[in-house]
Amino acid sequence: MLIFPGVGAFGTAISFLQSRGLLEPLRDYILSGRPYFGICIGMQVLFQSSSESSLPGLAVVPCPIELFDSTDKAVPHMGWNAADLLSPAADNSEPVDQSYYYYVHSYCAKYNPQKYPSATAWIHTTTQYGHELFISSVRKGNVFGTQFHPEKSGAAGLALLDAWLRNPGAPQSTQAPAPPTLRAEHRLTKRIVACMDVRANDDGDLVVTKGDQYDVRERAHSTPTAGAVRNLGKPVALAARYYAMGADELCLLNITSFRHSPLQDQPMLAVVRAAAESIFVPLTIGGGIKDTVDPDGTPRSALEVAGAYFRAGADKVSIGSEAVYAVERLHAAGKRDGTSAIETIANVYGRQAVVVSVDPRRVYVDPATYEGPYKQELILGRPDGPENERGKAWWYQCTVSGGRESRDLSVVQLACGVETLGAGEILLNSIDRDGTGLGFDLDLINLVKKNVQIPVVASSGAGSKEHFVQVFQETAAEAALAAGIFHREEVQIADVKGALQAAGVNVRV
Ligand code: 1PR
After folding, report:
1. Element spanning 413, H or E
2. What is the CATH classification number for the domain harbouring 137?
């Protein structure tokens, strides 16, 4: 049996297979009738072509892979969505069931039986994203392919893999396939992300910490721990707990790795490796994804650093400071030069694997006299907002090195710039709201959402389950992230999802 999982760009996948002499053996294997299971790019290579690249695919499935239409939705399609069977097996032995599965891709095989009638026999399930239907899995004879990632789809995905391993041949269906119909709404769920900020404590052990407005040291002067790095537990244990509690994604941010080379930072790689062994939802790793030089003088590119994290088990990498510098260079040159970490990583691993973590801080100004460059981006404090914000006006300035240094760049400039460079998602923090429990910064989220097409993860300030309902009702964020309330067990992930369901927000429960 051959399982070919993958995340990446179509052209890179095909040219790697070609250059390693694997393309023809792969075709021969598939045509030999032995069991094949392709996941994501491992499914896409079965198709005849992709608009992502000029290289041809294996052409086992006679239809092309195309880019999603981004006029009515965020692209990439990222998160948990359904997979509807076209013709259920007579004995109900299909591995795909009514569960939600995890998707992360910008390109897909569009459902178009009129244009590609000979591909119809391959269609196993379809899925709706926005107002487009696409082929979310193919199955015929010895071949099975899923656009979604069973290995990242929690218990449902593990059950699917188990069922396929037991019975890899396509079961016979007695029913004629029922053509899918377009629904009024797609079923992509809103995602709940648990975030762990990781750093070495004063004894050199990696711990999960949590700051208030990015200050992670204990403040209370009277306690014996005053001034020490706040320790909220061990990263792998906490990650496993959040997986078991139903988090849709996990995020591990190495918050001090901008100081040194992460390839020397074996404990962080070990944390990722250990977490990925027992956690079957997507894992984003951030901190120190940049070109760097090891202490022995060996240069390491951001691509190498990211590759080490992907091989250790990360699904996405999150870039902070380096993204700010890259957009500054983009503005100075007026065009992309292909060398930034965002571009080089997206080129090999696909844009969906590149998250940009943004750390904006408010700059308060007098709206009556402000004539600076960010006039169009000014926000006026809401009359129903937190008391200390009412009647004030501000713009959002980007920072680097965990908020330690401010740069002459607004959050809108950064968001648009990283989208141009090829980022696939924005993790939108707020230094002002971080750790305050005052709720997400809705104005900030709406401002960024209005300016980009890629998905946005709302972060910072969650203090109650109602804040999650509010962020999804009042903004178009695709996901919401929290740290402190989950670490302190003030709110359970199940309670958040219960409140969202009660409010009519589609979530995975
Ligand atoms: O610049 O590429 O090395 O990346 C550094 C990464 O580390 C960035 O993603 C940056 O956001 C993060 N970081 C750096 N310093 C800190 C700090 O706290 N001192 N943490 C830090 C950022 C913010 C969120 C937090 C939410 C939710 N953490 O991730 O989890 O605000 O918190 P809440 O729910 O408790 O309010 P680079």
Report:
1. helix 411-421
2. 3.40.50.880
pTM for this prediction:
0.93
Tell me the ipTM for this assembly.
Answer: 0.98
Output the ligand 1 site: residues, CB below 6 A. 195, 197, 210-211, 214, 216, 253, 255, 257-258, 286-289, 318-322, 357, 359, 402, 429, 434-435, 459-462, 481-484
C-alpha span between 295 and 498 (Å, rounded): 49
**Is 195 one of the annotated active-site residues of the chain?**
no
Same domain for 131 and 27?
Answer: yes
Residue of 84, 197, 343, 441 marked active site: 197
Q: How far is the CA of 264 from the centre of ligand 1 (A)?
A: 21
- 158, 150 Cβ separation under 8 angstroms: yes
pLDDT tens digit string along 94-151? 677 779 999 999 999 999 999 999 999 999 999 999 999 999 999 999 999 999 999 9
Q: What is the pLDDT of residues 287-312, one digit of tens each?
A: 989 998 877 888 899 999 999 999 99
Nearest residue (CA) to ligand 1, atom 8: 320
Q: Which domain holds residue 489?
A: 191-357+413-502
What sign does the CA torsion over 103, 109, 114, 117 have?
negative
Domain annotation covers residue 278: yes
Regarding whether 425 and 339 lie in a shared domain, the answer is yes
What CATH number does residue 273 fall under?
3.20.20.70
